[in-house]
Amino acid sequence: MTDDQRIERDSFGDIAVPSWAYWGAQTERSRENFPIGGDLMPIEIVHALARIKLAAAKVNARKGLLDPKIADAIDAAAREVIDGKLDEHFPLVVWQTGSGTQTNMNVNEVIANRANEMLGAPRGSKSPVHPNDHVNLGQSSNDSFPTAIHIAGATTISGRLLPAVERLHIALNAKAVEFADIIKIGRTHLQDATPVTLGQEFSGYAAQAENAKRRIRTTLADLLQLAQGGTAVGTGVNTFKGFGEEVAADIAEQTGLPFV
Predict the structure, then answer these.
(1) Contact between 109 and 91 (Cβ < 8 Å)
(2) Are 247 and 48 in contact (CB under 8 A)?
(3) How far apart are alpha carbons 223 and 234 in whole angstroms?
(4) CB atoms within 10 A of CB 196
(5) Per-residue pLDDT reduced to its tens digit, 150-209
(6) Which residues contact 50 (CB under 8 A, 6 or more apart)?
(7) Residues 132, 104: Cα–Cα separation, whole Å
(8) What domains can you pick out in the chain, each with its CATH number?
(9) What is the pLDDT at residue 3?
(10) How far is CA 236 from CA 11, 209, 248, in A?
């Protein structure tokens, strides 16, 4: 080991991790085993997973399953991830195991190491905050990753895509009015046709944008249904009844979207 590395441990043994990094052994093994391309996991997925960790910590603490001090540290660290303050600590590419396990562990490790640092413990100590036992408590990659996809999709659609399409619709409507008196030759079958106004033409574009908004909104209902609480095989094993519903309610509060 050199001064710019530290040793982390998992069930396979020791592995050297960059000393500045908040990720741990599982993430480092993924970096070594899947050096495929440069397509990083979309940061929106990472931020969504951090929302799940934040919600789960609060729910587990309320049920007495997680020490409030540990839950508060997870809360604070997860918020830093959500706010984009730790983006450089998520180096994994999309080419990995099918269930997103390595990215889920990347988020668990970063939050745990940052939480431990906040509590005065060194990175890599896994104490008092453990990435699996505490950050991932009541969760599995099999429910957390699809939940993160839905959260990322819904928040991006509602926060970025729909407002952009709305601005486009407004702009096209304005042009339809502005161009109302401009007459142009119509075209059909590669030939000139009967005249139309440029405003009429742009009104068609505006109608297409309006229809696009409606179709986009119809996708949100399905995205607002979250898989969280199903855990490994959909039965909710290793968590309590109602965990998923409480996590969804917290994520709804975080995002302002009616997740269930």
Answers:
(1) no
(2) no
(3) 18
(4) 15
(5) 999 999 999 999 999 999 999 999 999 999 999 999 999 999 999 999 999 999 999 999
(6) 78, 79, 81, 82, 107, 111
(7) 10
(8) 5-137 (1.10.275.10), 147-255 (1.20.200.10)
(9) 76
(10) 25, 42, 14
Rounded CA-CA distance 144/232 in Å is: 9
Query: Which tokens go with 101?
Result: 């396990």
3-state secondary structure of 84: coil
Query: Dihedrals φ, ψ of 193, to 5°?
Result: -135, -170
Question: Tell me, what DSSP letter sits at residue 41?
Answer: P
For the four alpha carbons of 10, 12, 16 and 20, in that order, the dihedral sign comes to: negative
Residue 115 · residue 74 · CB < 8 Å: yes
Whether 209 and 169 have beta carbons less than 8 Å apart is answered as yes
Which parts of the chain register pLDDT below 50?
A: none
Residue 1: per-residue pLDDT: 57
Start-end of H helices in 2-67 = 25-33, 43-62
Q: Give the Cα-Cα-Cα angle 43, 48, 52 (nearest 5 degrees).
A: 145
Using alpha carbons only, give the angle 118, 255, 63 rounded to the nearest 5 degrees. 60
Is the bond preceding residue 128 a cis peptide, omega within 30 degrees? yes
DSSP one-letter string for 102-146: HHHHHHHHHHHHHHHHHTTPPTT---SS-IIIIITTT--HHHHHH
Whole-angstrom distance, CA of residue 187 vs CA of residue 197: 12
CA dihedral angle for residue 237, residue 78, residue 250, residue 227, rounded to 10 degrees = -40
pTM of the model: 0.93
